[in-house]
Amino acid sequence: MTTPTTPTTGSTPAAPTTGSLRVPGATLHYQVRGEGPLLLLIPGGAGGAAAFDNVADGLAAEYTVATYDPRGISQSTLDDPDATQRVPEHADDACRLLELLSPGVPARVFGMSSGAIAALHLLTAHPERIERLVAHEPPVVEVLPDAAEHRALLARVQETLRTQGLMAAMAVFAEGSRSSSGVRNGEPAEPKAEATLPPQAAARAERTMANLPYFVERIMPSFMAYAPDTDRLEALSDRLVFAGGQDSRGELPYRPAAVLAERFGTELRHFPGGHTGLTTHPDQFGELLRKVFRA
């Protein structure tokens, strides 16, 4: 069941069309802009559809651009707020959006961070729905040779969350990531709001921070423990592009993309900025994304 709502058109560019889609256990909030072949953008971390505000209008010049809040994030509500979150369930949500917005026609998909993990599962489970997938820094740490260290880190993060709270848990995660890579790790969420941020960006960062407890407690454990079907992905690698940030080489989210691209014998495409390059370099990021999908 979908309930679309078309807002009034304001200043250029026009506001997106919004809608809701009922899926098992949740109601998804989504937005649609533009015309042309469908391009589904899957946000990561504690971000929602608003994570793509700075690039969606530009991409809408060539595509019907769909963005959404993953279940439990922002305006996408859960039937059971305490429900365990799993990668296949989130991938199924994305598939249902593709079926709604591009019935019978394969679509282009971009996933970032944890959203890229859901996108990888979507590709292996429903390859007929995807024409091309760009996966930007999916933190599938189970493909790394030091995966056991990251499992131990995640266990420490969850224990700290239970005993000391969110900020202490995030400090453990940041420190453990730095220790593992030797460089500063890009946290899979948007930057905190600062006085220098424009109002729209500050509001987006505020929403991201509000979603962070749910992300750390419900999403991070299962998503970062997810082991992708690498044989299946390799068989589908002709429609799969792994991407990493130019400034995040060697960091935790970057490394799985680099490992898998090398394993599959495909090019790792470098996008501007680091793990949050979509936020810090939106114009350059969007332009490169258009080029990758045209190739």
UniProtKB/TrEMBL annotation:
Signal peptide: none
Ranges where the record places region Disordered: 1-22, 177-200
Name of one Pfam family that matches: Abhydrolase_1
GO molecular function: triacylglycerol lipase activity
Domain called AB hydrolase-1: residue spans: 37-148
SUPFAM superfamilies xref list: alpha/beta-Hydrolases
Glycoprotein in keyword set: no
Superkingdom, taxonomy of origin: Bacteria
Hydrolase in keyword set: yes
Biased composition range(s): Low complexity: 1-20
GO biological process terms, semicolon-separated: glycerolipid catabolic process
Keyword tags: Hydrolase
PANTHER family for this protein: AB HYDROLASE-1 DOMAIN-CONTAINING PROTEIN, HYDROLASE, ALPHA/BETA FOLD FAMILY PROTEIN
Protein name (database record): Alpha/beta hydrolase
Source species: Streptomyces kanamyceticus
